[in-house]
Amino acid sequence: MPDMLVKLYDLNGNESVEQYEKRTGITVRRAIAPEKHVVTGWIAQQFNPAWVSEAEVAFARSPVTCLIATENNKLLGFACYDATMKGFFGPTGVDEQLRGRGIGKMLFIYALELMRTDGYGYAIIGGAGPTEFYAKSVGATIIEGSQPGIYKGMLTAPDIE
CATH number of the domain at 4-151, please? Predict the structure, then answer.
């Protein structure tokens, strides 16, 4: 999967987290340190160990660069930035049964807005899976020659049963 580039200075016209919460009842916010075990445990159950490692790095930053989506005190999704590399968005994921409610898009947009506030002019989506989604949401473009990019030679754990 290739990396993608987002021009943060061109973000505009997106629904705010406050508007999204008012419309859907879903809160999107920065996670806080005491939630780390809950969030990383959920990521481990829903996704994969590499994403847990990245989320742990996001929790180690100050402020925390892991965002969460919740509804009625239930975790629905997460998004990280500045986890694998500075200026990188990801990983991100939403409970498979809850997809289609705009949760992933809101997490993505809010993370990009925070990156812009942090002083970044561009964001890189590392190993972008749904490239069409990112292109449609914010005009992200594929970075030619970026596959496997920074992930080249990455160690992976053997299958453990």
Answer: 3.40.630.30
Q: Rounded to whole angstroms, what are the CA distances from 25 to 15, 42, 76?
A: 14, 21, 12
**Using an 8 Å Cβ cutoff, are 93 and 46 in contact?**
yes
Residue 40: predicted pLDDT: 98
- CB burial of residue 94 (10 Å; 0-12, 13-18, 19+): buried
Quote the distance between the C-alpha of residue 103 and its chain's center: 11
Q: Where are the domains of the chain?
A: 4-151
Low-confidence ranges of the chain (pLDDT < 50): 161
- Measure the CA–CA gap between 84 and 104, rounded to whole angstroms: 19
Tell me the Cα Rg of the chain. Answer: 15
| Cβ atoms 39, 68 nearer than 8 A | yes
Q: pTM (2 decimals)?
A: 0.94
Which residue in the block uniquely carries the two structure tokens 């959920």?
A: 42
The tens digit of pLDDT for each residue in 65-76 reads 999 999 999 999
